[in-house]
Design goal:
Layout: E1 6-11, H1 21-27, E2 32-39, H2 50-68, E3 74-78, H3 81-100, H4 115-127, E4 132-136, H5 145-148, E5 151-155, E6 158-162, H6 164-170, E7 182-185, H7 189-194, H8 201-207, H9 216-224, H10 252-256, H11 280-292, H12 294-299, H13 318-322, H14 328-342, H15 352-366, H16 390-397, H17 404-416, H18 421-434, H19 440-450, H20 456-466, H21 483-488, H22 493-498, H23 507-510, H24 518-523, H25 539-564
Parallel strand pairs: 1-2, 1-4, 2-3, 4-7
Antiparallel strand pairs: 5-6
Helix pairs in contact: 15-20, 19-20
This protein binds flavin-adenine dinucleotide (FAD).
Length: 573
């Protein structure tokens, strides 16, 4: 007889119940089900800024509340997976659950177990000594090789991090110890990927002769030869889990509750109000709201930037996509249906569909390139001899460059954790090829900490792009930290919002306060050099020098290519 299969589902980067193929598949035939989220201090969260943490905790709260509707709960555990799982597998959960059972015959609120079922559970706990099945969602664990995935295997009762290939082999590793046997159920890569990408990287790469397409045109041409993405799967409901018990603890919140920012030791006193509430529910609502704005979706065009678009005004779905609160397949197909109805829309890359394709483009480009976020060892990165200038880097990161447009965007990044796409362009260009000539790797790290939507591949890919280190090579154009801002927001209200010290400056001078006559500075109660920094560079001179240096790099690259016939995207050393 098949042993009972008690399912422990490990949520990682697919924090949702809709379109969750790995969970759905694992539920099939399971007799009980529990969901775990691990807050691993050495994992992804180690470099999260406070906004990203807040967003994550809200995602977990939302997930917990959805699981309550299934009479279950989310078990949040702090620690490293290697340590956490053996403890959970040693039936600690079960022991705790039994100890917490009430003696008065009533069950805990939100539990769907009746008394007889609770009795069953004791038996269950014994039979469970056979096999506990464990499903993990292997989507997008960052900073590791192999398409951002870390695989965990259980060997000799120990959970270990392994690479993708050996994880496959680990599938057969199983019930070696009689009383502690955990069989690793490998979630097929296609399921893992579904939570982050509409299509499969491997298919795209194989269609492109084994390498990721490195231009968007090529990427589109490869996609045109592939099937469209699979349709999203239905939401997990009470019906889906009807055969499963969903044991919970009376002391759940004490033992496995979601910590607050204060519990985690954050100083929340200066925290700005929450523009984005994390979680699947909010993500679905937002998507629905956008889809009702049919004309807006139809005429969506990325390159437009108005004063309004400096505040969240696109779909702002990126943090939700990044944490997997919303399925990109759902987004893709909802857009598809809408386009079919309205029959008119811009084509990619400008359309909203196109934005999702960009996301996929970078995921694919980063596949099998563990150095995608670095210069060293990154075959598609041009080796630009950037300067090291920690002081200038700190001024940029803290919004103290003396250019109000750049500083306001940096403050928005720090306070809100989200910046409009072209705002990101402005600050990235300023740091790298535009003014400061500092490596894109430094900018990547700052974004990685502060952006709520930070995605390893997209973030690194865009920095490679913006710094002319890969993908894009029109280095003779760079953004002016004054003119670009004036164009986007002629009134300067964006600056006033994020840099209150400049709020009394008239529009005429707000982008260049250093040019304001002393009387204007006195009237505005802001003296440049005292209350607000003087610009750290002369933009005209700095950008000219940067362009000259970039031109030299590319000339050298061309010479190298001519000699050794390097493929177009391969860097020289
Ligand atoms: P919308 O315009 O509404 O687009 C819908 C979705 O498409 C987005 O949510 C996002 O998932 C995707 N998308 C849009 N533009 C891009 C793009 N250029 N590349 C890839 N996907 C895109 N985006 C991230 O999601 N994570 C990052 O870490 C990230 N880092 C960036 C770093 C730099 C230097 C730059 C210039 C851009 C970066 N972007 C990143 C891309 C882009 O700025 C954001 O995706 C976008 O601003 C998010 O806002 P939105 O959700 O309103 O986008």
């Amino acid at each position: 007889e098949e042993p009972k299969r008690n399912l422990l589902h490990w949520f990682r980067k697919g924090l949702r119940l809709h379109d969750n193929p790995s969970l759905r598949e694992a539920l099939d035939g399971a007799s009980s089900f529990r969901c775990v989220y691990i807050l691993d201090p050495h994992g992804d969260v180690s470099q999260f800024g406070i906004n990203r943490w807040r967003f994550l905790l809200q995602c977990l709260e939302d997930l917990d509340s959805s699981l309550r509707k299934l009479n279950s709960r989310l078990y949040v555990v702090r620690g490293q997976p290697e340590d956490v799982f053996p403890k959970l597998f040693k039936r600690k959960l079960y022991t705790d659950e039994r100890m917490n059972e009430r003696t008065d015959g009533r069950t805990e609120e939100g539990t769907n177990e009746r008394t007889d079922e609770r009795r069953d559970k004791r038996t269950d706990a014994r039979t469970n000594e056979g096999i506990m099945n464990f499903t993990a969602q292997y989507s997008q664990e960052t900073r590791t090789a192999n398409a951002e995935q870390t695989y965990f295997a259980i060997r000799g009762g120990k959970v270990q991090r392994v690479d993708a290939e050996s994880a496959v082999e680990a599938e057969s590793v199983g019930s070696s110890k009689p009383h502690f046997a955990a069989k690793l159920r490998i979630c097929p890569p296609r399921h893992a990927e579904a939570s982050r990408n509409p299509r499969h990287d491997a298919e795209i790469i194989s269609e492109n002769d084994g390498t990721p397409p490195l231009t968007f045109k090529r990427f589109q041409s490869v996609l045109s030869r592939l099937d469209p993405p699979a349709k999203p799967e239905d939401r997990i409901t009470l019906d889906t889990i009807c055969q499963c018990k969903t044991p919970t603890l009376l002391a759940h919140d004490d033992k496995y509750g979601i910590p607050s920012l204060d519990d985690l030791g954050f100083d929340t006193s200066g925290l700005s109000s929450n523009v984005f509430r994390g979680g699947e529910s909010e993500a679905l609502q937002r998507l629905q709201g956008h889809l009702q704005r049919k004309a807006w979706v139809a005429s969506y065009e990325k390159s437009k930037m108005t004063s309004q678009s400096l505040f969240p005004s696109q779909t702002t779905l990126s943090p939700y996509l990044s944490f997997g609160c919303i399925s990109p397949r759902l987004f893709y197909w909802k857009l598809h249906e809408l386009y079919r109805k309205i029959k008119k829309q811009n084509d990619p890359p400008l359309s909203l569909h196109g934005q999702l394709l960009w996301r996929e483009f970078f995921f694919t480009a980063a596949t099998n390139n563990p150095s995608f976020d670095k210069m060293e060892g990154n075959a598609i990165c041009i080796q630009v001899p950037w300067d090291k200038n920690p002081e200038a880097l700190a001024n940029w990161a803290e919004g103290k460059t003396g250019f109000p447009w750049i500083d306001a965007i940096m403050v928005q990044l720090r306070e809100v954790g989200w910046v409009h796409h072209l705002g990101r362009h402005a600050i990235a260009c300023f740091l790298t090829r535009g003014d400061l000539w500092i490596s894109w790797e430094e900018g990547f790290k700052v974004f990685d900490e502060l952006l709520m939507d930070a995605d390893w591949s997209v973030n690194a890919g865009m920095w490679l792009w913006l710094s002319c280190s890969s993908f894009f090579q029109q280095f003779l154009n760079c953004y002016c930290p004054v003119g670009f801002g004036k164009q986007a927001d002629p009134t300067g209200d964006f600056i006033r919002h994020y840099l209150p010290v400049l709020k009394a400056f008239p529009a005429q001078y707000i982008y260049e306060p250093w040019n304001a006559p002393e009387s204007v500075q006195v009237a505005a109660k802001c003296i440049v050099g005292k209350d607000y920094p003087v610009p750290m560079v002369n933009h005209a001179e700095a950008s000219k020098l940067c362009m000259k240096r970039m031109k030299q790099v590319y000339q050298m690259l061309l010479k190298m290519r001519a000699k050794v016939q390097l493929p177009k995207q391969i860097a020289y050393k």
